From TrEMBL:
Keywords: 4Fe-4S, Iron, Iron-sulfur, Metal-binding, Molybdenum, Nitrate assimilation, Oxidoreductase. InterPro entries: Asp_de-COase-like_dom_sf, BFD-like_2Fe2S-bd_dom, BFD-like_2Fe2S-bd_dom_sf, CT_Nitrate-R-NapA-like, MoPterin_dinucl-bd_dom, Mopterin_OxRdtase, Mopterin_OxRdtase_4Fe-4S_dom, MopterinOxRdtase_cofactor_BS. Residues 7-62 form the 4Fe-4S Mo/W bis-MGD-type domain. GO terms for molecular function: 4 iron, 4 sulfur cluster binding; metal ion binding; molybdopterin cofactor binding; oxidoreductase activity. It is an enzyme of class 1 (oxidoreductase). Its EC number is 1.7.99.4. Pfam families: Fer2_BFD (PF04324), Molybdop_Fe4S4 (PF04879), Molybdopterin (PF00384), Molydop_binding (PF01568). This is Nitrate reductase. It comes from Cedecea lapagei. GO terms for cellular component: membrane; oxidoreductase complex. SMART domains: Molybdop_Fe4S4. GO terms for biological process: cellular respiration; nitrate assimilation. The gene is narB. Belongs to the prokaryotic molybdopterin-containing oxidoreductase family. NasA/NapA/NarB subfamily.
Length: 890
């Protein structure tokens, strides 16, 4: 492996999404800069804002650096012995079914393989599941039902080669930005290419769409059945393909025939004309790709939705060719790797299941007679079993279930009752480590070495370029050490991740003979050096396909025993929970552009937090006219409530609100959205319906709102009913609010922070508010601005004053008013995170004549790097032009 402290760039794979971009990390005088690798097939040199900010999230603040038992640091020896002893005792007393592992698509393949092998092969229970249950489980079952294998038939290039791309349940612009950039470029190069976005919300992705179908939430299966029926009626089927290469067409077409234009339009809440136009576009496209993501998978009928999509592709022969295919895009950097090793509880290993044959085969390969004979519990059931005591020990690695699982408070309650909770983490204080008895410090991205597989089945290396911090260790090492102490030394004697990779590759080819899609036996003989140098390669990689270049299903042979694909007749169903009088709106949840999941990593970057800095709820203004922008609002479901910033938005469909999934309880008082969500799951995949929860919303009356800046790290928020933390370098920054006003502001602030003895400048605005600047040694220590409404504070100016205090009285006075002294203009919310360009200068530039994204880019640089902000730039241009025109019309 590369010597640490080299001045050469390290080529690695991005830590974030399933696009799996190749990234060069170049050492700088201070830290590292990230840039896209031109030869990587996933991104061809591109990078998005999260990728380009990777260097900013490498700091060690908040890291878990030592093993801990009951939150006290202990030696590795003691931690590992304790884990092994306590697991052994529980297994001895209650049997192997009493223990469970819960892993993550953010583990590397090598880590994942060892975890799965230990649980399913040696402890002998099936209870190893993963957060991919919340993410890809429905897509996996959809593929397996259709093809007999969990094999994604597409490449990113197909998106560029298609005549028509359907993006359904995917906010590609924000969640898979480099794929979006590639699509946007392809559309520019070939304007005749059609892009259709299917999403109840009008998202940033709609910016490049020729058509947006804002369908009724949860109605996608009907839309695709309707499309299939329209193809059948209009003569658009590939009958030859259906006859020779598929089964199930007859029943499927019969079931679809009920989805007439009128019925589909009614069910989906779309106009017949729009549906007709949609069918026409599909029908006239030689090459169709359907890219689908969480709006499809996270559903109580997610598998059927996947099948409805795949049916359309099989019936029209849009598969196994260039520019075609049903393409489920993965979320996490190694979601696909987890599927390969068998990380889901219903898989055994390497695309094998729990058939007698597979159990025997894997047992012989691993040299174990104790292979689990049956599938284990999937994530939701697993945490229910933790709650009701069937599971007495759970080991959580690389995921934060107290934030991300539905019914999250119940998950937290279950963990609190569990006799043994082990958490392998990179961060010290997460909602999940708070529930742990034993915390094990893992190496993070940039420190660890291994492989990941992206959405297009491309295996790439993640390479270390940083020294191991503290006592942190690779996840595979931690697992192997525990396995050895459990008595499985021989099977877990790994010294190097390449050994694990070779074993995994060998198992994939073991007695395979073309029967299993996942076969990377061509990589089983890599030397350590070859593994280290491994260039991105798409599986399968075997004798028949040594370079990984052969297209999946090009020969129209599938993995069912008869070699034929299956069409599956489906009955479209709406989500399980319907709105009611008490909870009349539906809450949709998902991602924002610049944050990753539960924010344990992206939350460290001040730059990434400038885009959307508080947890929010978007709703159509007519659904709650009494709630205005700048208010706080309470969002309640039958399970709990949240306090969020109100974002009325006419682009939000009536009847539906949107709340981001990201904010954890380190970042906001009451914003863990999964605490509100019922754990309704798909009966076939066990995947929860995370995008559809009936809620009510109401105005939350505040007596005051404030912004607070306090010098220092690890500063606790003050005691208030609402707070939210905004990352700033060296400063704790909070937005605050409460329902009653303290009698004495100074006493209130000094009751929370030690500012006694500091020089205080204050401005008492009576009922309207209060400002306070506290100084010590000539340096600003604390700044506080309370107002009746959200105070208008130039955040950059206040943050800057902490490092360069204003020299003259007029500037201090300006600072007390929350403004920069002198002529420095405020920037407002940051729109372009790459160049930190704010909303105010952008709007000013539009008013001064920059009426296109290109113009704005020339003037301010915004949108010229990763391009993720282009949809928002367009929105600002449109809004400003509207205002200008309205002004002219008067
Ligand atoms: N910035 C950022 N990028 C990420 C991540 C992140 O945390 N942050 N996470 C990664 C991960 S793990 C994943 S899984 C992916 C997820 O990527 P996406 O699935 O693209 O992201 P989401 O925002 O969860 O949801 C996508 C869209 O589904 C829509 N939707 C909701 N209900 C329905 C419906 O009934 N039908 C249809 N057609 N659409 C619906 C939502 O309105 C939303 O716009 O993103 C990956 N990339
Ligand atoms: N309401 C709602 N809920 C959702 C979703 C949604 O759209 N809506 N999306 C779901 C989806 S698709 C997903 S994928 C999940 C994601 O949810 P989680 O997996 O819970 O989210 P992360 O924040 O990525 O958690 C990863 C954890 O692993 C830690 N970590 C990072 N690197 C390493 C490492 O190398 N080793 C170890 N041991 N730990 C590490 C991080 O600090 C972090 O705490 O959320 C799901 N939950
Ligand atoms: S698109 Fe995804 S993989 Fe690529 S740089 Fe952005 S976050 Fe990383
Ligand atoms: Mo995901």
């Amino acid at each position: 492996m590369k010597p640490v402290a080299s001045t050469e760039p390290t080529s690695t794979t991005c830590a974030y999404c399933g696009v799996g971009c190749g990234i060069n990390m170049q050492p700088q005088a201070e830290g590292f800069s990230a840039s896209g690798i031109k030869t990587h097939p996933a991104n061809i040199g591109r990078v998005c804002v999260k990728g380009s900010a990777l260097g900013e999230t490498l700091g060690l603040q908040g890291r878990l650096l030592h093993p801990e038992i009951d939150r006290q640091p202990v030696s590795w020896a003691l931690a590992l012995n304790t884990v092994a002893d306590r697991l052994s005792a529980i297994i001895a007393e209650h049997g192997p079914q009493a223990v469970a592992f819960y892993g993550s698509g953010q583990l590397l393949t090598e880590d994942y393989y060892v975890a799965n092998k230990l649980m399913k092969g040696f402890i002998g229970a099936g209870n190893m599941d993963t957060n991919s249950r919340l993410c890809m489980a429905s897509a996996v079952v959809g593929y397996k039902r259709a093809f007999g294998a969990d094999a994604v038939p597409c490449r990113y290039q197909d998106l560029e080669q298609a005549d028509c791309v359907l993006l359904t349940g995917s906010n590609t612009a924000w969640a898979h930005p480099v794929v979006y950039q590639r699509l946007a470029q392809a559309k520019k190069d070939r304007p005749e290419m059609k892009i259709i976005v299917i999403d109840p919300r009008q998202t940033a992705t709609c910016d490049i769409a020729d058509m947006h179908l804002a369908l009724r939430p949860g109605s996608d299966a009907a839309l695709f059945c309707g499309a299939l029926n329209a193809m059948a009626v209009g003569g658009g089927l590939d009958n030859d393909f259906l006859q020779h290469h598929t089964q199930g067409a007859e029943e499927t077409l019969r079931a679809a025939s009920e989805w007439t234009l009128a019925r589909t339009a009614e069910f989906c809440g779309l106009a017949e004309e729009q549906l007709q136009a949609f069918y026409r576009l599909i029908g006239t496209s030689e090459r169709l790709v359907t890219l689908y993501s969480m709006g499809i998978n996270q559903s109580s009928s997610g598998v059927d939705k996947c099948s409805a999509i795949i049916n359309l592709h099989l019936a029209t022969g849009q598969i196994g060719r260039e520019g075609c295919g049903p393409f489920s895009i993965t979320g996490q950097p190694n979601a696909m790797g987890g599927r390969e090793v068998g990380g889901l509880a219903n898989q055994l290993a390497c695309h094998m299941g729990f058939t007698q044959e597979d159990i025997s085969r894997v047992g012989r390969f691993w040299g174990s007679e104790n292979i689990s004979k049956s599938a284990g519990l999937n994530a939701v059931d697993l945490f229910r079993a933790v709650e009701d005591g069937r599971i007495k020990a759970v080991w959580i690695m690389g995921t934060n279930p107290v934030v991300s699982l539905p019914d999250a408070d119940r998950v937290r309650g279950g963990l609190a009752r569990c006799p043994l909770v082990i958490v392998s983490e990179i961060m010290c204080d997460t909602d999940t480590t708070r529930a742990a008895h034993i915390c094990l410090p893992a190496l993070g991205w940039g420190e660890k070495d291994g492989t990941v597989t992206n959405s297009e089945r491309c295996i790439s290396r993640q390479r270390a370029f940083l020294p191991a911090p503290g006592e942190a260790k690779p996840d595979w090492w931690i697992l192997s050490q525990v396995a050895q102490r459990l008595g499985f030394a021989e099977a877990f004697s790994y010294q190097h991740p390449a050994e694990i990779f070779r074993e995994h590759a060998a198992l994939s080819g073991f007695e395979n003979n073309g029967s299993r899609a996942f076969d990377i036996s061509g990589l089983a003989a890599l030397s350590d050096v070859e593994w280290d140098d491994l260039q991105p390669i798409q599986w399968p990689v075997n004798v028949a396909n040594p370079q990984g270049t052969v297209r999946m299903f090009h020969d129209k042979r599938f993995y069912h025993p008869d070699g034929k694909a299956r069409l599956i007749a489906v009955t479209p169903r709406l989500p399980l929970s319907a709105p009611s009088e008490a909870y009349p709106l539906v809450m949709n949840t998902g991602r924002v552009r610049d944050q990753w999941h539960t924010m344990t990593r992206t939350g460290k970057s001040a730059r990434l937090m400038q885009h959307l800095s508080e947890p929010f709820c978007q709703f159509h203004p007519e659904d709650a006219p009494q709630i205005r922008s700048g208010d706080l609002m309470r969002v309640s479901s039958s399970h709990g409530w949240l306090l969020l910033r109100a974002q009325p938005d006419t682009l939000q469909p009536r009847g539906s609100v949107f709340v981001p999934m990201h904010w954890n309880s380190n970042f906001s008082q009451q914003a863990r959205v999964d605490a509100l969500i019922e754990a309704n799951v798909d009966p076939l995949s066990g995947q929860p319906e995370s995008k559809h929860m009936p809620v009510s919303i109401r105005y939350w009356r505040t007596a005051w709102q404030a912004e607070l800046f306090v010098r220092g790290e690890n500063i606790e928020p003050p005691i208030t009913s609402y707070w939210s933390r905004i990352t700033q370098p060296g400063i704790a920054h909070f937005t605050l609010a409460d329902t009653s006003r303290p009698a004495d502001w100074l006493a209130w602030v000094s009751g929370q922070y030690a500012i006694d003895g500091y020089l205080c400048h204050t401005a008492d605005l009576g009922d309207d508010g209060y400002s306070l600047l506290a100084w010590a040694g000539g340096e600003l220590q604390l700044a506080f601005y309370a107002r009746r409404r959200p105070p208008s504070v130039d955040r950059q100016a206040v943050v800057a004053a902490f490092s360069s205090p204003p020299g003259i009285a007029s500037q201090r006075l300006a600072l007390l008013g929350g403004r920069a002294g002198g002529d420095k203009a405020p920037t407002g919310a940051i729109i372009c995170s790459c160049f930190s360009v704010g909303e105010i200068p952008i709007a000013d530039a539009v008013r001064q004549g920059c009426h296109s994204v290109q113009h704005l880019g020339n003037k301010l640089n915004c949108g010229t790097n990763c391009g993720s902000c282009i949809p928002e730039l367009k929105k600002i241009i449109a809004a400003q032009l509207n205002t200008l025109r309205a002004g002219e019309a008067k």
